[in-house]
Amino acid sequence: xxxxxxxSEHSVEAYSRDxxxxxxxxxxxxxxxxxxxxxxxxxESFVKWVADLGMTASSQARxxxxxxxxxxxxxxxxxxxxxxxxxxxxxxxxxxLPDVLSFEEIERxxxxxxxxxxxxxxxxxxxxxxxxxGLRVSEVINLHISNLxxxxxxxxxxxxxxxxxxxxxxxxxxxxxxxxxxDIRAHIDIKPGNEDIVFLNRRGSRLSRVxxxxxxxxxxxxxxxxxxxxxxTFRHSFATHLVEGGADLRAVQEMLGHESITTTEIYTHxxxxxxRDTLHMYHxxxxx
Length: 288
Hints:
Layout: H1 9-28, H2 40-52, H3 57-76, H4 103-111, H5 118-133, H6 137-141, E1 148-149, E2 154-158, E3 164-168, H7 171-183, H8 209-222, H9 231-244, H10 249-256, H11 261-265, H12 272-282
Antiparallel strand pairs: 1-2, 2-3
Helix pairs in contact: 1-2, 1-3, 5-7, 5-9
């Protein structure tokens, strides 16, 4: 997983837990066999066992995905000659859409930042960058100075699976990134190993994912926004505003760094007014 698929340590641990659960089940039913000896009925019984533990459909589907990945490896390494997961059905999961912020709400959150503090200047640069580029929280905290090409309006982002992509960055985000680097970051005593990291805490180390979460939660509360807000809300809003503004879905896919366009579709929360306007513009029955 780490060497061939370049997955993060967190992802590798998650897949390992899936195999641990399968092992626990096989031990509980005294079915201690080699991977190549497992049959579809064994895995179907395992899925039922997982469901009986009270896990949600999405958790069950994720575990099954982990088992499928394991058997792909077994086939590749000739540990098993067959793949019993081929006909294994995952439970249907509802693809619910998270809350999306309007542009006005995003401005309210950003305007709630106290710019009189060093952290305030940094936080403004963070939120402007997140909304301008649609970054994942992991991409924000790992953003490198050497990957900023602000003179031409692009940044290089290292996404999931260590995949790189170039993303355009807006003038407002460029402005506050430059202010942060010149007036705030330049005066921080940087810890060794963090010299190329853009966003630092007051101790000179990179920020944590949790810190970004708390920053956004606090600002949303100050702005009087009661929606369920997380760092991912900015990424979702970025994609939603692009699509509602008429952006091509393939372009949005490229900027978000999604392998499949079906994943991008999750972020295209389109309101009824936008749908109605689209029909009036393009459908012959609605044209006047």
